[in-house]
Amino acid sequence: MFDLSPYNTFGLKVKSKDGLIVNDVADLRRVHSENIIVLGQGSDVLFTDDFDGTVLINNIKSLNIDFVDGKYIVKVGGGVNFDQLIVSLIEKRIFGLENLSYIPGTVGASPVQNIGAYGIEIGDYIKEVTAYDLQRHIIQTFSKEECEFGYRTSYFKTHKSRRLFITSVTFELSSEFKPKLVYQGLKDENFVNAQELRDKVVELRRTKLPDPRLVGNAGSFFKNPIVSKEFAEKLKKEYETLPVYPYDENNCKLPAGYLIEHAGCKGITHGNVGTWEHQALVIVNRGNAKPHEVVALAKYIIAEVYRKFGVNLEPEVRTYGRTGEVSWDTL
Ligand code: EPU
Known about the structure:
This protein has 331 residues and is α+β, with helices and mostly antiparallel strands. The chain has helices spanning 25-29, 82-91, 155-158, 194-208, 229-238, 256-262, 291-309; strands at 2-3, 15-22, 36-39, 45-47, 51-58, 63-68, 71-77, 116-117, 120-121, 126-133, 138-143, 164-173, 216-220, 226-228, 245-246, 251-253, 269-270, 273-276, 279-285, 318-321, 324-325.
């Protein structure tokens, strides 16, 4: 048995049949199990049960930096800690990822759900992703287009039947600091250097989001829902303070945190789980939480938000059960 407690930031006491720390591609050639889950630091997963298979922990730590045609091409091993990468890039005066500071997890996990925060998404900075195909035992490189990035999604999340292990991610970054300040809380700031921007983002995250080293959680539990423009306008008439963000020509994005708060679910506690007092979108482990308690609270929140707003929330975290990834509707 392999203890998964250190590999899920929810801090749930779950186990898998086997586990392997993968330090390089050679380790992957020896993997022949059929039932596999790949994890980095487990900062975006919910285990609903023990897992009856092998968990591979991405611990590939390589870093390769080139300067080509005025751009930095940075190829990073999938097991590198994402925030430590940002710290070392700023030290080397390589810019672009500062807004994503302090996000827990590994570089290999970052393209899977196309992590985003404070006005940027990682997909915009990715040149290519290299993955090891665990069924065919070959290495495949995906161009940015082949990664099919969308809001909190990518090819790696939607093609569930393909067992891919992301060995490295190649970023295209800048030698000049050009801050992106579209996020409301950053707009009016004047950052003279990347470290200042990073410090501000770290401060924002610290005030709104629980530190998973202290309080078990997996960041935003739900995605911000996409609804039609007409529906958003109708809701806005009723709830004047509701923020509505543009998404595409016909649709808008609504902040799930607002909906959850106004459905009366911010800061609540059900048994050993609850929602964070400063950001209702985050489900937290209040100590000794059991997987079924997280599922029950999430279902309660979905029902309450639907009852109040007629909006269906969908989980953003990936959910795994005894046999592998499970779809939320089957729980
Ligand atoms: N809001 C509330 N109540 C709450 C939480 C939020 O009314 O309890 C309102 C805020 O006042 C604000 C709006 O909702 O007007 C948006 O809130 P915020 O800026 O905190 O961002 P978010 O939409 O709730 C998203 C990402 C976060 C990311 C932040 C900042 C998703 C699912 N979440 O949250 O990502 O850090 O923007 O860019 O898109 C994550 O994915 O794990 C994550 C933390």
